[in-house]
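User:
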Amino acid sequence: MPLNYFYIPENINLDEVFRNNPISHIDGFKRDKLLYVLHLLAEIPSTNKDLTGEDGYIPINAEILKEWIGKGYTQYLNYLQDAGIIECDNQFIIGIKSRGYRFCKKYQQTLVPIPVTDRVLAKKLDEWKSGRPSIEIDIHASSNMVDEMNTNQPHSSTSSSASISNIYAPVHKWYNKGGLKINHGLAHAFNEGEFAKKRADRSMWDKTFTSHGIKWKNPYIQYIGNFMNIEKIRTSQCNPHPDSNVYRYHSALTQCKKEIRNAIKYDSEELVAVDLSNSQPTLLTLLLDDAFWSNIPQGGKLISSDIPYLLSSPLFSNPNHFPYFITLCKNAQSNRIKEKDEIGEYYRMVEGGNFYSAFRMLLKERLGLEYKSNDEVKPMLFTVLFTDNRFIGQIEAEPKRIFKAAFPSIYEITSSIKKNDAANLPLLLQRIESYIMYHRIIPRITREKEYLPIFTLHDSIATIKGNEDYVENVMREEFAKCLGFTPHFKRDYWQESKLRNL
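Assistant: Predicted structure:
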């Protein structure tokens, strides 16, 4: 049985805590259960990079606590709060938000491992790590879309399900072989340095785009999340697993900060990641095409019914919305032949491989707006993809309003997709990406070069240096078949020297 550890802040001395705060009110108290609660505050950020709110509170689902600790989990939470180790935001909304917890400022320190001593809990942790549940999806979820077009929206069915967890097996096996190694000293030093910089300068904080707008990421939560992922890779406990929402394959490697990956090798050999350039603008072209939604064959180009789980959740709440949406797409496509039409211009920008540079030029020509770098215009697309339609009236939504002015038809189509739920658009894009990756590219590489180590990073594939030409060629050909045009790719060579120089 593998030795398991809890990770907690280094300055928490439990013996001292117990002396100062005697335990007399927790039925059947177990030290490891208390440690597990503390460990969750580090574990959860390591599995979700976007779950890092500015205030640093980590939502903990009560059902998870009940499963691992039992009905008395609230006693452990109350004890840690009374002892001044953690604090709660006291915000709970049924079915929407769990209560959030964070370490008190005094304990926002680096982490140290504490061995798990409770045999029952240790066995449970081993079982969880070695056997996450497979994903069940309806293989007929979108097959009846054409029949439903005139009367309703595409729908999902729950009549017949089939496991697709085996499609991840070609990637999973390379995690099991244990070849991934990390220079953890170098990685931890970089992580410490980043945390110190952000703690000293608020302007260096990272941000993310949510349905409610731009949110800042708490540096300490990012720090402990990165710390945990470094340790998981070091101990070969990357915990690879698919998700049942967008069907991506997650692990400590995918959750690891991009810069830290430079400290990772496979059996002492350097790795390189081949990445789809401008992935979101590129994949969006499919959603703008009425033929994709109507399942009209286009010489092998991807259609919606090809993806069994694309519509495993309803897209539109109003049954009359889908015909209206199809009309929007048809009108947009019919205008592509017109000179300087926005849809045609958008496709040319994507196919050119330099979308953001071309977007900057277009903004200058059409709207008289001048931007110095691509980083300044990327938020425009991100706000369109990720934020709620109602966000457009906010002060921070200026990039969204500019995109709407430049691409009114595209904005109308994307807004229509998000009318029922702001999460619909990124969800669809990521499901398309997952399908192309795990149903087209990975199977082909496995057939042709079964011996080649490969690791997926959502829209990119990492492999041993020297094989990047082959991997890129497969990705280029398979994406071209699915999209109807050949997209562009970029390479990221993972080298320790890059991390040392950051």
